[in-house]
Design goal:
alpha/beta, 5-stranded parallel β-sheet, two-stranded antiparallel sheet
Length: about 375
């Protein structure tokens, strides 16, 4: 049986049933191999996240001057923004090895104890999706993070004894896409918490320029701008679209990625000018055409597009809400005016009652009831 950190990231959330990886922020198994070649190896080469990078640089430099491992690091944010890259950079900057695992892969406290006992002095342990770690393993992690010691229980029942096991000082780097699911005791044991933000198009163009150079792709400035504008503010999606556009340019053109080539390629892959794919547009079309803009429940919306409810709620909705195309309300999902315009449909008469606008009272003389929360 392989050790927990030999299992890779098999416990990561997949893109979802029926969801193509085109603009999904989740990474497939084959894509991780390509990502490893494109990842930066130092904070100097890391593009974007200037605040987090600056804060992390101070933490690492201070630790190196003191000759001790830095505080434990928690990186929080949506998938595809560079949390794994930063974890590997921490090990590179410290000159130590990095052991990689994921929360779902640590099923028992014994798995974690074996992993911790194999760490060398100053090593970095990276746990992706740390909010999904099993509770017994999480409780064992508390003592390891604070005192660099774990108690191994030998035996069962009244004869069980706890044997203290000293471990080498290490740095834990945890990554999570759901910071709210972390327990308070675990979150409080991290000395540095970095919140990753979505990238601006100009930052994505720098990412694309670097990736194009590593991949040997001739990328023009207007071509990179076109790809960056459809990448949902996520470097992983930008690199994925670059590879698909490169394929199109090499097969259908002369290999140069220009704006026209990027537009033709992304149209072929059903990625529109806002970065919406087929499923995103299907959700908006169903909401607008079949339910007159809503409100409608997510389960009903999922049935209308032939998907599972959690796929619509966890894969499609985050970007649609962030793009201002869909609103979540107590009564259900509602298409905004921007959604009607994006689909080329006339906005309903009187507009969409969002925000502080109230609905018409149901009965004459009754008090008006807020239709949506602000």
């Amino acid at each position: 049986m392989s050790a927990p950190f030999d299992r890779g990231l098999a416990g990561e959330v997949e893109a979802g049933p029926g969801r193509e990886l085109g603009v999904s922020p989740q990474a497939g198994d084959e894509e991780r191999v390509v990502e490893s070649a494109l990842r930066p190896h130092s904070l100097h080469d890391f593009i974007g996240q200037p605040k987090v990078a600056r804060q992390l640089a101070l933490v690492l430099e201070g630790a190196k001057r003191r000759g001790r491992p830095p505080d434990h690091v928690l990186l929080s944010g949506p998938p595809g923004l560079g949390k794994t890259s930063l974890a590997l950079i921490i090990g590179s900057e410290l000159g130590t090895s990095v052991k990689i695992t994921s929360g779902p892969a640590i099923e028992r406290s014994g798995d974690l104890a074996a992993m911790l006992s194999n760490l060398g002095p100053g090593d970095v342990l990276f746990i992706d999706e740390i909010h999904r770690i099993a509770r017994p393993a999480e409780e064992l992690l508390y003592m390891a993070m604070e005192d660099f010691r774990v108690d191994v229980v030998v035996g069962k029942g009244p004869g069980a004894t706890a044997i203290p096991l000293e471990i080498n000082p290490f740095t834990l780097v945890g990554a999570t896409t759901r910071a709210g699911l972390l327990t308070g005791p675990l979150r409080d044991r991290f000395g540095f918490v970095g919140q990753m933000e979505f990238y601006e198009p100009a930052e994505l163009q720098l990412v694309l320029a670097r990736s194009a150079e590593l991949l040997g792709v001739e990328l023009t400035e207007d071509g990179s701008a076109e790809i960056a504008g459809r990448s949902r503010g996520t470097p992983r999606i930008a690199n994925r679209l670059l590879r698909r556009v490169r394929d199109y340019a090499e097969v259908e053109g002369d290999g140069r990625v220009t704006r026209a080539v990027a537009q033709a390629a992304l149209a072929l892959y059903d990625v529109d000018d806002l970065g919406l794919d087929r499923l995103d547009r299907a959700v908006l079309e169903a909401l607008v055409a079949r339910f007159n803009g809503g409100p409608v429940g997510v389960s009903t919306l999922a049935v209308a597009v032939g998907e599972e409810s959690h796929t619509v709620e966890e894969v499609c909705e985050p970007f649609l809400v962030r793009a201002g195309l869909l609103a979540r309300t107590p009564r259900g999902r509602v298409a905004t005016e921007a959604a009607w315009r994006h689909l080329g449909r006339p906005v309903p008469r009187g507009g969409i009652p969002l925000g502080g606008v109230t609905a018409v009272p149901r009965d004459p003389g009754s008090s008006s009831e807020p239709l949506f929360d602000a």
